[in-house]
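Q: Structure tokens for this one, please.
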Amino acid sequence: MTISVDHLTWMYETMYKIRYYEDKMAEAYAEGKNPVFNIGAGPVPGEMHLATGQEPAAVGICVHLTKEDTVTSPHRPHHHAIAKGVHLNRMTAEIFGKVTGLGKGKGGHMHLFDPDVKFSCGGIVGAGIPHALGAALAAKKKGKDWVAVAFIGEGAANQGAFHESLNMAALWNLPLIVVIENNQYGISVPKSASTSVPSNDIRAAAYGIKGYYVKDNDPIEMYNVSKEAVERARKGEGPSIIEIETYRYLGHFQGDPEVYRDKNEVTLLREKDPIVRMRQLLIKEYGIEEQQLSELENRAKQEVEAAYQFARESDYPAPEDALKDLFV
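A: Here is the predicted structure, written as tokens:
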């Protein structure tokens, strides 16, 4: 399948932006939490789940989406939000708990909502699938060619919401795509110890829908299967499941001791880094100059740095406003 250079460079720049954003968030989150880890300390309190290494899952499908398409995300949402076009300044301010955030600082890292680009983050395992199902139903009822994408982890494929939503989506022939990011572990439990099938794409057969599997965290293959799934959904050909074999380089949460996996595992995974592979592909196969790629990287860095500066310089909500806007 031919891929335009514009799509390829957008994917590369967005993956780079996601990685740089998560690296910066890891630093910000660690402030004030050492030498003894204190989840409530520092400028970014609470639990934090980063997506370093999982960038291909987000960019490979979001490159095919428009502002009118819906995306829902679980507790590890930054890469999806960035790829969908969520306002980076307001997203970062929200994570820092600032009044300039998407939810005026009241939602935080696991509850990011941006109606301007139809993005929402439920935070709970599998919770976003019924929301995406509703968006897909709305699209069909309104006669629109909009698509709804629900990102979940492989553990969420064992939740009731997964099966119930896909059954309804298949029955009503809805434009729903469920993207399963198989990062090998549900918290600390390996997939082999929790799931009876080798890959969740084969579960699509139970609903009479299309299933795809993307090996080895490959952004190009993710692009190709996502293109087909999105085109099918827009044409009224029904829902799909995409499972991508991806990898999180960090723990389930920041501060995770990761005693459940061999430290050499992460080293081996980083040797197959998708951003490095994508950069090499653009240079060798598409003749893009390193200078151009460096310019894309610098632009991504500048955007991220500006977002963090905006968040740090923004004000916290006033105590007397704590309960405002919670009930409408």
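A few notes: DSSP finds ten helices and nine strands in the chain. The radius of gyration is 19 Å.
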